[in-house]
Automatic annotation (TrEMBL):
Protein name per its UniProtKB record: Exopolysaccharide biosynthesis protein
Domain spans labelled Polysaccharide pyruvyl transferase: 49-293
Domain of life of the native organism: Bacteria
Pfam families, per the entry: PS_pyruv_trans
Length: 361
């Protein structure tokens, strides 16, 4: 079946590769920090995509991967020219200090290291956290920040004394995915309640019925060390503990991504209020509706990086769901249709880059 999202995905992969090449070259050592602390397939997709992009650029595995405070100390034993890439699976400044600490502590501990915050949403809980981030980043001499939506880009440009760039979420680095064999399902909701101002899930399901998953509670067994990871590392001549841990974390991320893909595979239509739900739908060639309030970061990110994709439609409330679903394409006998007519599948899509408002630059 023709993959309606393939051209767009390749475009985002190329964007990520160009961005990474500014900081690391073929054969150069590098570090990846902030391995996801959750079992969320989307968060793990950001890690897995970043691993794939960095391997594509350097042709090698990271010399260190980290997720905890101890990992910060381990950076001392790595080559001095190894830049630190921080995975953008969580929101920067989201008020959960445990997550933010690894970023700020790296900046304070290694002022001479190149530190690259990969594409991320910025959402500070209060002014005090924002001021702390401004001071910490401002003191660092080689901190680079990448934002994955226009609002975050503007906030970073206005507040952070460092180079700021727009970039898609690193989950795009995984590339197109194939669904698993699964029982067919007309509609699937991949949603999580975020707050009182968000779309009412119960109201949405009353309009278009379907099972609901927030998919964040995968089995703990997927995170266990397996012999296969040790064998893979050894085949790459990675015999050190750090090299085996890097392979283990890559494999864990791949397992949780597969866990999410299996959930999505049977659905003909997916309704989601999650950014990574949207991205995995694109990778899987799944038509979907992204439901979020007006001005949301989800819709902002879609407008920035997937506005020309026929696979996604936006809705701002439950009442818009049916109309949005009716605009999605559907496949029949290997042919894609939209509004009951065969789609004209152009070999390329117009490039749409995130452009900051002139007043911000």
């Amino acid at each position: 079946m023709y993959h309606l999202g393939e051209v767009l995905i390749r475009r985002q992969q190329e964007k990520l590769i160009r961005s990474v090449r500014k900081f690391v070259s073929r054969g150069q050592p590098y570090i990846i920090m902030d391995f996801p602390s959750t079992k969320d397939p989307g968060h793990n997709a950001s890690w897995l995509g970043l691993v794939k992009v960095l391997h594509e650029v350097t042709g090698r595995q990271p010399v260190l991967t980290g997720a905890s405070a101890k990992s910060i100390d381990d950076v001392k034993s790595t080559p001095g020219d190894a830049p630190i890439f921080i995975c953008g699976w969580s929101d920067f400044g989201d008020g959960q200090l445990g997550r933010d600490d690894i970023r700020f502590r790296l900046a304070c501990r290694y002022p001479d290291r190149t530190i690259v915050q990969m594409p991320q949403t910025i959402d500070f809980a209060n002014e005090a956290l924002l001021e702390y981030a401004k001071r910490t980043i401002g003191r660092h001499r080689k901190f680079f920040f990448m934002a994955r939506d226009e609002q975050s880009f503007g906030l970073a440009k206005a507040n952070f004394d460092c180079d700021v760039e727009a970039g898609p979420d690193t989950a795009f680095g995984i590339g197109p995915l194939k669904p698993f064999d699964a029982d067919p399902l007309r509609v699937l909701y991949v949603m999580q309640p975020f707050g009182e101002d968000d779309v009412d899930i119960a109201e949405a399901r009353a309009i278009a019925d379907g099972p609901l998953t927030n998919w964040i509670n995968g089995p703990d067994s997927l995170a266990r060390m397996r012999k296969s990871s040790v064998v893979k590392a050894a085949m790459r001549r990675g015999f050190s503990r750090s090299e085996m841990m890097a392979q283990h974390r890559e494999d864990v991320a791949a397992r949780y991504v597969d866990y999410g893909v299996k959930m999505l595979s049977g659905a003909q239509r997916i309704i989601t209020n999650r950014l990574h739900g949207h991205i995995l739908c694109l990778l899987l060639n799944k038509p979907h509706v992204a439901v979020a309030r007006n001005g949301s970061r989800l819709h902002d990110a879609i407008s920035s990086w997937a506005s020309d994709s026929p696979l996604v439609e936006k809705a701002t409330n439950a009442g818009e769901l049916l109309a949005a679903m009716s605009r999605l394409p559907y496949e029949m006998n290997g042919t894609w249709y939209k509004a009951s007519r065969p789609m004209d599948l152009s070999p390329s899509l117009p490039a749409r880059d995130l452009v900051a408002h002139p007043s911000i630059v």
